[in-house]
## 1
Amino acid sequence: MMAITVVFAVILVALVLFIFYGIGIYNSLVRLRNQVTNAWSQIDVQLKRRHDLIPNLVETAKGYMRHERGTFEAITQARSQAVAAKNVPEASKAEGALADAISKFMLVVENYPDLKANQNFLALQEELSSTENKISFARQSYNDQVLFYNNKIQVFPSNIVAGMFSFTQRDFFELETPAEREVPKVSFT
């Protein structure tokens, strides 16, 4: 009788420990999922800031660049698509196109020395540059969080708990512009 009680107590303690271990895994998955969501919101804040700056930059440039209608339309369309993005893959693609349009816009600006000397334009350009840096840092942080979260839901034994409670992988935020993937060419001639 005593041996049965001891065996029952050992089984009960093991079961309680197993339940607490499962609860710990679940809680860590929830924390990681929330960190990924928070990291995305940090990117979203910077993207909104960028989206708000672009119309001011374009309006300032319009007075100087009267013959660049196609450039203005391209950047406006790219901005609209970026604002309308509903998830990480859509945002990645749209933000890549927007970055490409901004880059082309800045190349066209080089042909207008009066615009480049305009204080308002210079301030907006500096603000945009600062925002681009913040987006880059936020994107790196987000991707680090996604990597950690995705690893956690894929490794044993947390993958069992993740599967039971429908924790799914998150997408990385990657810009999809060919220009970003190209290696810069350096020439000393």
## 2
Amino acid sequence: MTVSTAPAPIATGPTRNRPVKLKVDRVSKTFLLRGERGEPPSPFTVLREMSFDVREGEIVSLVGESGCGKTTLLRIIQGLNRLDRGTILVDGHAVSGPGRDRGFVFQQASLLPWRTAAENIEFGLELQGVPKAARHEKARSLLHLVGLEGAANKYPHQLSGGMQQRVGLARAFAIEPAILLMDEPFSALDAQTREVLQRELLRIQAETRMTILFVTHDLDEAIYLSDRIVALGAHPGRVREIIDVPFPKPRQDLPILRSEPEFTRIRKKTAEIIRNARSPEPAAGQEKTP
């Protein structure tokens, strides 16, 4: 791994004075694609010189068209994939593999079907050797936090999709990560359940001050949840622009916020950035602001 000494873009906005929890600095990743009919493998660059920061207590969303490397980047930050160049820092420490300082919430809850909701939440704590009584207490507290006090002894098949995602969120919170990585966690849910969980995520994040990096294809979701939005270009994935979201928290419900002219402006601007993402790139280290 090569560590670049070039500075990452510095965003401006309402959270700019907070300490940096996550630094993604000049990250690049290339895969070798299998050749056809005996041809040699060909390189495919997924990420190129990706740089941005996530500050303490922020929700930052990654948006971009399919193939821009959003999930690949999350897997690299989690330590599941290796980068080719650049560096990733969490609280100033370089990421070299999986660690308890990062929690991950997937598109599907991926709960263990033979364990109850409480036991799923306790799973990571068991692996860390946390005593049983402390595990039980933490699970009870987190079930209360996500609004599932009565579901402790239910198995995944007895829970709705939205309830399963709440358990998955509680499981990620249980290990007390420095940053929570969320990969389109609400995409498989119906629209009504999705809006409920978006509100719940904002409530929980306000109570815990958790730092969150959130991947979504839904621009309304990104604007509603985020302090800042990182708009990505594709083929290869790279930062095109970092956009401040100016709405104060706690936020109005999404249907009300959508009626704000500034919401419409940010949505239009972000959509245009993504649509024009294959146009020439901005100069290295340059960041546009709205």
## 3
Amino acid sequence: MMYNIAYTQEAFEDLQWFRKHEQSMIIDGIEQQLRYEPTVETRNRKRMSFNEIAEWELRLGNFRVLYNIDEQVRIVEIQRIGEKRRNAFFFKGRKTDV
């Protein structure tokens, strides 16, 4: 079963912050990893501990895609896109607590 992918305004702005080739890599990774089985935990996909941003995290190298899933209408909503350096998340180059 296929899921639709939607981006919040904040996620769209996060994506614009990256270089073009990074944007392509991130979008390709989202399509490959989240289109069909976004709720299946893998090495790169995991449920996050409680936070105010999202329930799930997708790892694409140093990039992180935080997302929620609406099972009823089969939509993956991308909340934020950033980088992870050591144990810290960075959105648009700024360190953020998650």
